[in-house]
Amino acid sequence: MVGNFILRLAIWFLLTSDLSPANIIIGVIIALILPRGYPSREKLKDWLTVLGKILLAIPQAYIEAFEIIIRPHNYEDVILEEIPPNRSARLIFLDIFLITFTPKTIVYKYRKDGWYEVHRVLPKKAIKS
C-alpha cells in the first residue's frame, strides 16, 4: 500500500514538475483517492525476467541511438510480437515499456487477442525483398 502511494505521488511530481506546497497537497490527495487495483498473482520468475530485461534494455537503448545517428535508418515496418500467456496487466505494461524504451521500436497497438503491433525502423540492408 505504501509503495503504491509513493509510486502514484512520484508520477504526479514527474508529470507536474512542481514541488510547491500546494502541489504536494494536491498530489497526496490524488494519490489517496485514486482507486486501488486488485492484487494479481504474478510469478516471481516473471518479475525477475522482466527486471533482467530492463537492465539489458538500458545499454541497448544507447547502442541503438548511436546506430541511428551514425547510420540513418530510413525504412520501417510493422511486426507482431506475441504476448506471453497468462500475463498480468502490470507485466504487459512493463513489456510495452521495454519495447518502446529502445529508439528503434514502439508498440503502437495492444491487441486483446494476445499480440503487440510493433513499429520499428530499419537500415536499408535489413529489409527482406
What share of the residues lie within helices?
40-55%
Care to count the β-strands?
Answer: 3
Average pLDDT rating = 85
Number of helices: 4
Counting helices, strands and paired strands, the structural category is alpha+beta
Query: What global shape is seen?
Result: globular
- What is the straight-line distance between the termini? 53 Å
Report Rg. Answer: 19 Å
Topology:
Layout: H1 2-16, H2 21-33, H3 44-70, E1 75-82, H4 89-101, E2 105-111, E3 115-122
Antiparallel strand pairs: 1-3, 2-3
Helix pairs in contact: 1-2, 3-4
Describe this structure in words.
The structure is a single chain. The protein has 4 helices and 3 strands. The protein has 129 residues and is α+β, with helices and mostly antiparallel strands. It has a 3-stranded antiparallel sheet, covered by helices on one side. Strand 2 and strand 3 form a beta hairpin. Helix 3 runs parallel beside helix 4.
Pick out its properties.
129 residues; 4 helices; 3 strands; 53% helix; alpha+beta; three-stranded antiparallel beta sheet
In short:
The protein has helices spanning 2-16, 21-33, 44-70, 89-101, and strands at residues 75-82, 105-111, 115-122. It is of the alpha+beta class. It has a three-stranded antiparallel β-sheet with strand order 1-3-2, covered by helices on one side.
